Amino acid sequence: MFKSIKIILVTSLWIGAGAAFAADTLEPVLKDRGRHFQTEGTDIPVEKDGIHDPENPSVEVLQPPSEALAGFPRDSAGIVDWVQAIKQGYIEPRADLEGLSSKQTLDLDIIFTDTGAMPNVRFPHLSHTLWLDCSNCHPAIFVEKKGANPIAMNDIFQGKYCGVCHGKVAFPPTLNCTRCHSVPKDTGK
Ligand code: HEC
Ligand code: HEC
Ligand code: HEC
To answer: Is 137 in the pocket of ligand 3 (CB under 6 A)?
Structure first.
């Protein structure tokens, strides 16, 4: 019981803090991946992670992420797989602070094909809407129309489009390319 309350605190602080990260802070974050992505083997105390306020007394009651996230599912880059964490019941994020409403999900994959020699990219609305509201992306980050956004990989590395979140609060674009580039070119999609 107490444990799950702490995890809610950690994840909500995490999302809030991520928004404050500018693209120029991406490099140190990635260099020091344990801070944000809690890769296996890293153990950075919350008061030293550069995310939480060390003066806030709650840093003492927060579970160390290495302990809280110890058994969590990981992707092939060793980063916590938060989509699996929901699907396997490790966490149950609320749709709102009081837990009164339910999430609006959308099962719609968008396949991006302008990927050069890399496999195509699948953007799954379903996984994203387990975490986010439509208004987190539309219209500020993406115009709500297939093909209407001129996304290039470099923009993502610079913190635009997918990079508004990936590299800050979601798995980084510099690791595990195939989590996004997951659709072989020869499927005809
Ligand atoms: C968060 C998802 C995501 C990750 C992770 C990711 N990509 Fe991409 N990538 C995209 C999207 C979206 C596009 C744009 C495709 C389009 O416009 O049709 C793209 C486009 C590209 C392109 C096409 C040329 C260009 O510059 O746009 C290349 C090459 C590419 N990515 C390489 C990579 C490599 C290498 C990695 C790992 C280091 C990687 N990508 C990781 C989402 C991702
Ligand atoms: C994490 C970001 C994100 C969230 C959250 C999100 N979308 Fe999208 N949406 C996208 C992207 C990316 C595209 C594709 C844009 C492109 O192709 O350039 C898209 C495209 C669309 C399209 C156009 C489909 C088409 O075939 O033209 C619709 C409609 C849409 N979204 C509705 C929604 C609704 C409704 C929600 C909430 C239930 C939602 N989206 C949540 C990122 C998001
Ligand atoms: C508003 C924030 C946001 C934006 C913008 C965003 N994502 Fe994500 N994405 C997330 C979150 C949060 C997760 C779940 C946390 C994690 O896996 O790190 C996620 C997970 C994913 C996953 C894993 C899905 C699964 O089922 O395992 C893929 C693939 C992905 N994103 C691709 C993309 C691509 C491609 C784009 C751009 C077209 C994009 N995302 C834009 C927040 C975002």
So the answer is: yes
